[in-house]
Amino acid sequence: MPTLAEFVKAYDVRGIVPDQLSPRVAEAIGAAFAEVVAIPDGSRGIVVGHDMRPSSPELSAAFAAGVTSRGVDVTLIGLCSTDGLYYASGALGLPGAMFTASHNPARYNGIKLCRSGARPVGQDSGLAEIRDLAQWMLDGGTGLAAPVGGPGSVESRDLLADYAAFLRGLVDLSAIRPLKVVVDAGNGMGGHTVPAVLGTAAGLPELPLEVVPLYFELDGTFPNHEANPLDPANLVDLQAAVREHGADIGLAFDGDADRCFVVDADGEPVSPSAITGLVATREIARARAGGDDDVAVVHNVISSAAVAEIVREAGARPVRTRVGHSFIKAEMARHGAVFGGEHSAHYYFRDFWFADTGMLAALHVLAALGEQERPLSEVCDRFERYVASGEINSTVSDQHGVIEQIRAWASEHGARTDELDGLTIACPEGTDPMWWFNVRASNTEPLLRLNVEAADRETMERLRDELLALIRADRDPVPTTDRPDGGEAP
User: Fold this and answer.
1) Class of 4-158 in CATH
2) Which of 330, 373, 291, 403 has the alpha carbon at shortest distance from 124?
3) CB 3.0 to 4.6 Å from 112: which of 98, 120, 290, 465, for a disulfide?
4) Class of domain 272-381
């Protein structure tokens, strides 16, 4: 049996079924989660949900058995999106476990864990202890005290309608102009949640939306395309459908439907940084109208420079942090931030327990579009200020050595540097045209990740090519505009 360290990542569990993640392993992780999180926190139970992958029901049931073996109760909510699990954790005040491998191929599955109130569980906030205790159990460890009162109980609840009603209560679409919306669920959990939130499947009133569904059939083998909209190849069907149907907007969700990507009426993608800017202005305005004088918005280091500008222009305070949901959520809680956004289309809301929900971001975009008459391209124009390369990965054996060469390059050019997350280098003050870039080493692979942004395309491409030549000198490159992990971890 492989060791858990091979597939228990910095933020979640993600492994091949059953070679790595088997029912036996899931049961051990469930027992360890109960011991490390639920019992010390005084939780009265744990809520467990799962996606549409063929292995998810069996794995989640095994996990629940591990939890109840430690005397902790389990509430099973069945099929749900990851943000649906976060809703359950927040609304019920329980730690949670979501069985999903997001956009990864069908042979994978995984577990996203959280404390009550959807607070993150990562490598530095309990996941390492869960991994080590589960490994000890799998290796034959004995000696855990028998649970007082015997095994825990199991109950089942359907929270889809409550989840949908909660989101609708945060953004009211009832009075917007009629919109035609194409939604590509990628055979993932968006096919379960979109009809409930945007339609009437959960018994909610009809909205002025005509939803054109693409790949709403729940199928964890992903027969049409990968459920990873960060890869432009997976947006092609959505773009074509938007143009074919004369739609006002297109939405694409990833496999567990916690990320949402947007295309305009011409089928052109709207960058996640622009969506961050758009949603931020709405949330800032709402917070200030409610009397909040110190409004903060969190963004990661590779979001567009426009995000911080837009936040300041709206009278709020931008907070810059590292890539990754545990860092975003921690900074949001520390600053009481009203909203947070990442380049990977994860969007976080104070009103959603500081957790990420692509569906709530989609509601904001639909409201911004439907509350006025202009097309989405014009609505987003003021948020798309600069030209970005997208994230480019290169295979590099000596990551440290290459980063030191880039640091020397920055010194020669009189550039500004910081090391909040990798190495960020920005042009000297007053430089026209503006540029900046970030280079970060992968935690799990011999890769360097490069992001470049500039005031114009010529500057961005010149800088990008110069840096790639430096990074890839005498090396075998693996060019891509997407991270292998789909943008969910650094």
Assistant:
1) alpha beta
2) 330
3) 98
4) alpha beta
